[in-house]
Amino acid sequence: METNGYLDMDLLRFTTAGSVDDGKSTLIGRLMYDTKSIFEDQLQAIEKSSEKRGDENLNLALLTDGLKAEREQGITIDVAYRYFATPKRKFIIADTPGHIQYTRNMVTGASTANLAIILIDARNGMIEQTCRHSFIASLLGIKHIVVCVNKMDLVNFSEESFEKIKASYIDFSKTLNVPDIHFIPISALKGDNVVDASKSMSWYTGSTLLQTLENVQIISDFNFTDARFPVQRVIRPQSDLYPDFRGFAGRVEGGIFRPGDEVTVLPSGISTKIKAIYQEKVELKEAFSPMSVCITLENNIDISRGDMLVKSDNQPKVDQEVELMLCWLNDKKMTPKGKYLLKHTSNEAKCVVKEVAYKVDINNLNKIEGDFEVSKNDIVKITLKSAKPLFFDSYKKNRTTGCLILIDEFSNETVAAGMIL
Amino acid sequence: MSHKLSHLEQLESEAIFIFREAVEQFENPVILFSGGKDSITLVHLAHKAFFPAKIPFPLLHIDTGHNFPETLEFRDELAKRYNVKLDIGYVQDSINRGTAVEEKGLNPSRNTLQSITLLEKLEEGKYDAAFGGGRRDEEKARAKERFFSHRDEFGQWDPKNQRPELWNLFNGKKAQGESFRVFPISNWTEMDVWQYIKKENIALPSIYFSHERSIVNRGGVLLAESPYNTLLPGEKYEKQIIRYRTLGCMTITGAIYSDADTLDKVIEEVAAARETERGNRADDKRSEAAMEDRKKQGYF
Question: Which of B153, B167, B187 to mutate to probe the A interface, most A CBs <10 Å?
């Protein structure tokens, strides 16, 4: 790996989804192997295992199957995170399993991703799971999808097969809300068009997968318009050096803040001006998403964790009722009209499920109305009523101020993930 | 001004966010301080997260009694520099109490005993969250570790029953007696840590850099001369130019031959190890050290 320029590298988080035999683990193994992100001892370990299993080629899938149960069953059962880097970008992969019962894992993996890789087996074309994975990516606000038509070696690298799948995906994707979709014919097993260009598909003149991952423009995915600063902690040193310092620590979750900006504190509605913005000792001229900073204000206002600083001329919605799409994550079903604890930015409040409007059939996006229970992996549209006002944006506008989780107060488990409409 | 953060700036911001979040969600957190580069980086990040206030929690070091003197010196100096309380758990105390039993044999390692002392100290100090320098790139099982990792009342991790972690909403709710491990640098790789150390000019213990030391080569592992190590028949100590990639007990931590005496040279070496170790078979010593790395770091 090249070390020059390492300090200026960019970061791309992506998620991978595919059904059981699409070759997802092989693809990730291939990306790591061909970008030289694997240590000798890891390589030796999988060489040995491959031999033991009687695999013909070095089984790159073994690199990523972490837990013992997974190695035995050959499937991935939880979200695992992988890392590799090229001189241009560092990559964080949220590797998620593709079974229907693992919708919750896909939702989890997609929640922090900028991009999703959707794998399609060239022999089978689009299947139900392709639609499901794509829908989840779209629902979770992912703006870039790379459709990898895999196992091209098993269809004689046929251009026609690829084009047919591409056409049907384009047709299907009109129902999605994903502005940027790429198509690449690959063979993860043989390495075609993953890192190196394929010698067997001269008809394909586009980028390889790695080139695509390196060059996708994600800067425009960040919100630089709607300035939001949820307060995480009040910093009061009360020391000899800083007897009166009162700063508000948090991460900018949208927009740009500058010293002198007029800001309003929610929920109190009091306005003041930003005095200074600090990163440790350094005074900044501006702060933007996703910087963690400490802000001081001109006036001494009572502010605590859970409050939010926003620009006075651009405020979020403030309401106790929110409508959202919710993915149920827990084995225990949702209690009708149940009470839960919600976490939204640095805010926390009790809430009650006021209404469940419909359930989404994630294979075809049809709405199912009427009486039903909400169980694990279900995606539903609901209305929540919170015990105190929330300050939020729609998830579409801002992923951070538009998302929340529900916690069961008896088990303390995270039971649901919601995206505000 | 470009509104783009480099990957290191993004990782730093994420780690600071986690520190602030954990301090608000837990009553009595502590940093597990091993003395190695990852935990030194953690302390640096904690300092940045709360400045100008001082770090609002103590450091906890589990002292096996077999540490390099350089590690202990550095630890004490660091605690003083950041004006942070240092809590030390001694494995020897656990042995004296009879809760831990010294390994038999010529060169007993206290590596596995550390966890016993650690759990005892966490209970004694009523710490409900412990920050660790664990990274997901270290080994396969760790790839599934959460930022906020729930532990039952016996301090155990159940990898098959972890809470889902979405966006940057972290759930630190727990029942009486349960606790959390918190990993602010989960998303960093070894290379990221080294590059960050360089960017931030973070001081490290001298033994990370090339120096002359009296060592014995035992089956490819280069062990330092120390009061805790007994020579086997036919072995003898020799002066060699070496450095350490990880810091642990003197009884088991292997050095590597290296003349990397500056941070830049160390980073170059780390980068090169990756490349040559791939594909063609690197020499056993190198790979032995890499194995050792992971075992050691797995402890936290």
Answer: B167
The widest CA-to-CA distance across chain B, in whole angstroms, is 66
Q: Please report the pLDDT score of residue A103 as a whole number.
A: 83
Tokens representing residue A341 in the block? 């604890």
Q: What is the CATH number of domain A317-420?
A: 2.40.30.10
**What dotted CATH number matches B7-200?**
3.40.50.620
Domain pair A6-220 / A228-311, same fold = no
Q: Domain ranges in chain B? A: 7-200, 206-298
pLDDT of residue B110: 79
Q: What is the DSSP letter of B122?
A: H
Best to test chain A binding among B9, B142, B169 (most A CBs inside 10 Å): B169
β-pairing verdict for A287-288 and A339-344:
unpaired
Alpha-carbon B265 to chain mean position: 21
Q: Give me the residue spans of the domains in chain A.
A: 6-220, 228-311, 317-420
- Please report how many Cα atoms fall inside a 13 Å half-sphere around the Cα of residue A32, on the Cβ side: 27
Q: Taking the mean position of all CA atoms in its chain, how far away is CA B120? A: 19
pLDDT per residue as tens, chain B (300 positions): 578 899 999 999 999 999 999 999 999 999 999 889 999 999 999 999 999 999 999 999 999 888 899 999 999 999 999 999 999 999 888 889 888 888 777 667 777 788 889 989 999 999 999 999 989 887 766 788 899 999 888 878 776 678 899 999 999 999 988 999 999 999 999 889 999 999 999 999 999 999 999 999 988 888 899 888 888 888 899 999 999 988 888 888 889 899 999 999 998 888 777 543 322 222 233 333 333 333 333 333
**Chain B residues in contact with A40 (beta carbon < 8 A):** 277-278, 281-282, 286-287, 290
| CATH placement of domain A6-220 | 3.40.50.300
Q: Measure Cα distances from A14 to A30, A96, A216, A418 in Å.
A: 16, 11, 11, 20
Q: Among residues 156-175 of chain B, which lie with CB inside 8 Å of chain A?
A: 159-160, 162-169, 171, 173-175
**For chain B, where are the alpha helices, taking DSSP H only?**
7-25, 37-50, 69-81, 91-97, 113-124, 190-200, 263-276, 284-298
* A377 contacts A103 by C-beta, under 8 angstroms: yes
- Identify whether the C-beta of residue A323 lies closer than 8 Å to the C-beta of residue A376: no
Q: What are phi and psi of B7, to 5 degrees?
A: -65, -35
CATH topology of domain A228-311: Elongation Factor Tu (Ef-tu); domain 3 (2.40.30)
Q: What is the DSSP string of A13-25?
A: EEEEE--TTS-HH
Dihedral sign computed on CA atoms, order A17, B165, A292, A349: positive
Residue by residue, DSSP assigns A314-363 as S--EEEEEEEEEEEE-SSSPPPTT-EEEEEETTEEEEEEEEEEEEEEETT
The residues of chain A scoring below 50 in pLDDT are: 1-4, 75
Residue B68 structure tokens: 């390099």
